[in-house]
Design a protein that fits this description.
This protein is an alpha+beta fold. It contains nine helices and ten strands. It is rod-shaped. The termini are far apart.
């Protein structure tokens, strides 16, 4: 039983055998240890060295003969203290590494896009929660809210759309391409300031909604179940998509 406990503390089978033999004998010479444990003498010397490092045995320096002695069992706590010391050193190294990596990433033009997937059961709450973030990004970038819109999005999330325009910042200029639909005719009658919709000349049957909001790209699928959304945060990707939609808007 005690051997299993020692193994959990990082002792090998042979280390446990030798340590327990030293503990039982009080003090003992390495040769006798090899005889008792049936372990090769050179291996015994090697294990004694490891047990000294663990802080659980020592040497009796009062005798001309080299005896090894077991330290009090309470000294097993030295193992934990040494591990804690190693962990603290690693923590310090990791902290320095994180800072250095941050410095490197802040000096490069390349950044890894942050991508989120939102399932249908979370989608409506996600829209309410992210709206202020998208608005802020649009305003800070001094851009317009661009993209295209599937009429199914309005049919399923008109409550959110009405809420959005009831509190949208005056600086928001939304310009979306869309396809012909009855629901869009209803929205047009509301005459919402800041909400600009163009029916694409070729009347492409959009089956998804795609927004570029500042540094964010948001894709929403509501044409079929289950609904879902994908949000990508990346300055360069958003910038390129914004150029495309600006061009499409101008020729529509």
């Amino acid at each position: 039983m005690i051997q299993e406990t020692l193994k959990k503390l990082g002792f090998s089978d042979k280390e446990a055998d030798i340590y327990l033999s030293i503990l039982k004998n009080g003090k003992i010479i390495p040769t006798d240890l090899a005889h008792i444990t049936k372990i090769n003498r050179s291996t015994v010397y090697s294990i004694i060295s490891e047990l000294k490092k663990k802080g659980v045995i020592g040497e009796d320096l009062s005798s001309p003969i080299k005896y090894v002695v077991a330290r009090p069992p309470e000294d097993l706590e030295n193992i934990i203290k040494k591990e804690e010391g190693k962990i603290n050193k690693k923590k310090a190294i990791i902290a320095n590494a994180i800072q250095e990596l941050k410095n490197i990433s802040s000096n490069t033009k390349y950044s890894v896009p942050k991508v989120r997937f939102i399932a249908e059961e979370e989608l409506e709450n996600f829209l309410y929660k992210q709206t202020p973030i998208w608005d802020k990004s649009v305003i800070e970038n001094k851009t317009k809210w661009l993209g295209y819109q599937d009429h199914a999005f309005i049919e399923h999330y008109k409550k959110w759309i009405d809420w959005y325009w009831s509190r949208a910042p005056k600086k928001i200029d939304l310009r979306l391409l869309s396809n012909k639909s009855e629901i869009e005719k209803v929205m047009e009658k509301q005459k919402i300031t800041g909400r600009n919709i163009k029916i694409f000349k070729k009347n492409i049957p959009f089956t998804a909604t795609y927004w570029v909001c500042g540094d964010y790209i948001v894709m929403i699928m509501t044409n079929e179940r289950p609904h879902y959304a994908i949000e990508i945060r990346n300055t360069e990707l958003a910038k390129n998509q914004r150029e495309i939609f600006n061009a499409l808007w101008n020729v529509s």
